[in-house]
Amino acid sequence: MLVLCVVFMGEATRNISAQAAGSKVLVTAENQSLSQSDIDQVIAFYEWAFAAKFTSKQRSEYQSIKLNEYRKDPAGTRKSIDNLISNYTKVRAKNEEEQSQVRQAFNKEYIGQLRNLPDDAEAKLLLSVYNSAHTGETASNNADDSSGSVGDISSIVGKWVWTRTGSSTYSTGGAYMGSNGSRFTYQFQPNGTAEFTGIMNVMNGGCNQQIFQSRKGKVRLSGSTMTINWSPGTFTRDFSCDRANNYKKTLAAENETYQVKFKTDLGQKQLCLRGKDETCYSPTK
Questions:
Q1: What is residue 185's three-state secondary structure?
Q2: pTM score, two decimals?
């Protein structure tokens, strides 16, 4: 059995096989069972960790691998799956920045382990899933690699986010008042529609200013050139110390063009958009 060492999340604290109650039982051995829900949750973990999707064929193949493993070692396989699902539940409860750190640490360690098991069926399958989303990654897992090709619109479908957090402000009595931070998100759909949201929070003394932008449009991808035809959007300003001058306005329709590439940073695939400057976005849900 391929050993999964989720060292970054600590040991599981409870058995969660009961989560599979009501799900289709796939195999039973030694008074223990493996359900469809178990397999689906394990696959969901790897899709989260690798920022990649299993194809229908890969899902079917992976399920067969785990069923065979379970028949050989029911107790060991059950424990391994329960630990993985428990740890996955814990990490998904973290904020996105913490999840990104966990994902990077996991991939940096785990992908190397998989590459050292060339004859293991599960390792080969998981590597194929990982490589499908990280075509620019070299065998040495160079964190600065930027040779990933883009392809058609399907290659960027999903939700991509860039975040930055800053200092926090507290009152003289020690009460939390707010933090500086920004979050920009692009979401691309298979039908070619795009949505952008941006939010900035700025603390200045005891004043809190929040700026929010939202717009939708149509995206075209030709090679490494992406053009977005934005429809009119919205822009709002909310300043706690100047309420009278807060406003919401409509942004004019416009076209934007970016040069697009994929980059792998510590095992995580990123979508990089270059206009005047380059910003790289991480996959999210």
A1: strand
A2: 0.47
Determine the Cα–Cα distance for residues 18 and 105; give it in Å rounded to an integer.
29
**Residues 6 or more apart whose Cβ sits within 8 Å of residue 223:** 150
pLDDT single digits (tens) 143-199 = 344 445 565 677 888 999 999 876 666 666 666 666 788 999 999 998 889 999 999
At residue 30, the 3 state secondary structure works out as: coil
Please classify residue 216 by burial: count the beta carbons closer than 10 Å to its beta carbon, then call 0-12 exposed, 13-18 middle and 19+ buried: middle
**CA dihedral over 66, 69, 71, 73, signed as positive or negative:** negative
Distance CA 195, CA 197 (A): 7
Listed residue (199, 221, 220) closest to 208, CA to CA: 199
Paired residues of 161 in beta bridges: 185, 282
Nearest to 273 by CA among 166, 175, 169, 146: 146
CATH numbers and ranges of domains, the chain: 7-133 (no CATH), 153-284 (2.40.128)
First vs last C-alpha separation in the chain: 30
Output the DSSP codes for 116-172: T-TT-HHHHHHHHHHHHH-TT--TT--TT---B---SGGGT-EEEEEEEEEEEEE-T
Q: Are 160 and 281 in contact (CB under 8 A)?
A: yes
